[in-house]
Input
Amino acid sequence: MLDAVQNLGRWALNILERAGRATLFLILTLRGLPPILARPLLVIQQMHAVGVRSLLIIVVSGLFVGMVLGLQGYNTLVDFGAEQTLGVMVALALVRELGPVISALLFAGRACSALTAEIGLMKATEQLSAMEMMATDPLSRVIAPRLLAGFLALPLLAAIFSAIGVLGGYFVGVGLLGVDDGAFWSQMQAKVDPDDIYNGIIKSVAFGFVTTWIAVFQGYDATPTSEGVSRATTYTVVHGSLAVLGLDFVLTSFMFGD
Amino acid sequence: MDQTPVTEQREPVVQIRGLTFRRGARVIFDNVDLDIERGRITAIMGPSGTGKTTLLRLIGGQLRPDAGSIKVFGQEVGKLSRRELFELRKRIGMLFQSGALLTDLTVFDNVAFPLREHTGLPERMIRDLVLIKLEAVGLRGARGLMPSELSGGMARRVALARAIALDPMMILYDEPFTGQDPISMGTLAQLIHALNGTLSLTSVVVSHDVHETSLIADYIYVMSGGKLIGEGSPQTLAQSDSPWVRQFMDGLPDGPVPFHYPAPAYGDDLLSNDDA
Output
């Protein structure tokens, strides 16, 4: 019994200590951000690595999710004679929820895991130590551009995901199932509020920040061995995905709760 | 004529007093005193696991001692702020055991890295400086290669070119000869010796390679079990009577540093039913 209490206490202390380290890491990284703003090329390179290289999976997934939404939505709405509102349903589902959430999950799996592995390997091969000995702060030179790039890239990827998803829904609904073209777009235009779009952007900004923070911290904090880097990469995907889903509920309850 | 004040010339570049450092319960250094004299190649030698690399990290301020003092260029390393520490490190080059080249940059960009980070020089001048450093290590022709395309010896020479990019006053070498073929080993030893002389450097070489290190070192400290067990010129140590020094210099498998890791009696262990 005493052992169980001890283990529970140790586990709780470990979590608190790690949360404290992650927060301190974030503060130090943010302090290293201003010099990086004067060197936009570093951020652009990382935007290419985490953003442009994630485009394929985002576009393909967005297309299929939109097509499935179109198909499922049509089959439900047609029973009520409301298939003309298919465009609204597809757009709202994508802009409010599926765009930000699925993009963030894909981003955690595709880009964040790569960030963790890259930083963890840089640590294991003493590249970060070498930078420190060259009087260059790795938090500013390596971590800050990646954090900023992830923060900026995800909202753009989510926007692309939603846009492609709407086109997928249009293709299935209008192209294959015969929903009226004009009704699809006009209903969407009438019913999708700018606030829905703003809320989707706020969500994807929050998800981008949290998933990238988790990724860079896991890499920087990884045990510098192959097993340590592998474990850190797994944690990035698991913790990042859970954080996205949990944060989504919290944000949704604030945005649409009343 | 050298304008350096006489007192500064006499003061060691690195002065370590009463250094104690632990990792958990394990004592790595126990009240160690050590001086690195200006202009010399000083070797820190000892068996694997004696904390030689840890000593370099303590000198470079990447680790802080549990007790004692480490002064580098007269500055107490453990008490420096991060900014002051970075200023100090601009005067120190370090060659890591693995080379630690930045794998996403070419050879040229690796050597240019400290210059671009700290000097604000125009690219044309950086190019010339990088080519001068690469020429010094014989790899000017390899400037377009990626680190993955280099052999181990070449990678260390590129890392050496990077370490001297900012014209440091001291270079710390972490096991520069480990894993090198005889040609690369000889090349590196020659480079360390030549650079120390021509650039008026102070060099600290951490190594367990007795032969190559003895050829280039002016002074050697031998460490084991967290303490200094011998010091002197290579010639002095070669004639030392200390069993500790003898075991290390002659490469004897057993002696004061035991061959066997501490374990229960062999017979008892074989007869016991423990799984591991």
